[in-house]
C-alpha cells in the first residue's frame, strides 16, 4: 500500500509487419546493460526480468521480447512529513492523562487542540498525495490517529463524570453526616430533658 508499495513497468518489443520468417527477436545472455546508475526522485530500481514468447497470429508466428522493471517507492519523505508529526500529535494528546482530574479545561484544550492539529496535518498531507480510488496506508494511519485522540476525549468525559459522581457522593455523605449529628443532638437533648422531668 502507498507509500510502501512497488511498481512494475513492462516494455514489450514485437515486430509490426515481419513474422519469424523474416525477423527473430531473442535476448542475449546478458539481456540488459545499464550504462549508468538509474536515479529517480521517488523510486529505486530494485530489479528487472526478461521474457521471450512466440505468439501465433493469423498471418504467422511472431517473436515477442518483454522486459519488466520493478521499482520501490522511496518513503522517507512520507515518514518525515506525515507519520512522525502525527505520531507526536497523538502522543502529546496523551499528556492529558497525567493532568489532575480537576483541571478539566486544560485537558479539554489539549485534546481538542490535538484533534484540530491532526485534522490540519491530514489536510496538508492530502494535498501532496496522488488521487487514487483505493485506500492508502496513510489513510489507515490517519484514521487510527483520529480514533486514538477521540478516545482520549472520551476518556476525559468518563473521568470527569466519575469525578463528579464521587464529589456528589462525598457531599451527600457530609450532608447525611450533618443531619445524623443533628438528629443525635436532638435525641440527646430530648433524653436529657426527659431525665430531668422524670426525676
From TrEMBL:
One of its GO terms (molecular function) is transmembrane signaling receptor activity. Residues 2-74 form the Neurotransmitter-gated ion-channel ligand-binding domain. The chain crosses the membrane at residues 75-99, 105-126, 138-159. Coiled coil: none annotated. It is found in: Cell membrane; Membrane. Residues 83-171 form the Neurotransmitter-gated ion-channel transmembrane domain. The keyword Oxidoreductase does not apply. Keywords: Cell membrane, Ion channel, Ion transport, Membrane, Signal, Transmembrane, Transmembrane helix, Transport. It is a multi-pass membrane protein. SUPFAM superfamilies: Neurotransmitter-gated ion-channel transmembrane pore, Nicotinic receptor ligand binding domain-like. GO terms for cellular component: plasma membrane. Its main location: membrane. PANTHER family: NEUROTRANSMITTER GATED ION CHANNEL. This is Neur_chan_LBD domain-containing protein. It comes from Angiostrongylus cantonensis. The lineage of its organism: Eukaryota, Metazoa, Ecdysozoa, Nematoda, Chromadorea.
Amino acid at each position: 500500500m502507498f507509500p510502501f508499495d512497488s511498481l512494475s513497468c513492462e516494455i514489450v518489443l514485437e515486430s509490426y509487419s515481419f513474422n519469424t520468417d523474416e525477423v527473430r527477436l531473442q535476448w542475449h545472455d546478458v539481456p540488459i546493460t545499464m550504462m549508468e546508475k538509474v536515479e529517480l526522485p521517488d523510486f529505486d530500481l530494485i530489479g528487472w526480468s526478461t521474457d521471450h514468447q512466440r505468439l501465433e497470429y493469423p498471418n504467422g508466428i511472431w517473436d515477442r521480447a518483454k522486459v519488466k522493471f520493478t521499482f520501490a517507492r522511496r518513503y522517507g519523505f512520507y515518514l518525515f512529513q506525515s507519520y512522525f508529526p502525527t505520531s507526536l500529535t497523538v502522543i502529546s494528546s496523551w499528556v492529558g492523562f497525567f493532568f489532575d482530574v480537576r483541571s478539566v479545561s486544560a485537558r479539554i484544550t489539549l485534546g481538542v487542540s490535538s484533534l484540530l492539529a491532526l485534522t490540519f496535518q491530514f489536510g496538508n498531507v492530502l494535498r501532496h498525495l496522488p488521487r487514487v480510488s483505493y485506500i492508502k496506508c496513510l489513510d489507515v494511519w490517519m484514521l487510527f490517529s483520529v480514533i486514538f485522540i477521540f478516545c482520549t476525549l472520551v476518556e476525559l468525559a468518563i473521568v470527569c463524570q466519575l469525578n463528579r459522581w464521587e464529589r456528589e457522593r462525598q457531599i451527600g455523605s457530609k450532608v447525611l453526616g450533618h443531619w445524623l449529628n443533628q438528629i443525635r443532638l436532638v435525641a440527646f437533648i430530648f433524653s436529657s430533658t426527659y431525665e430531668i422531668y422524670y426525676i
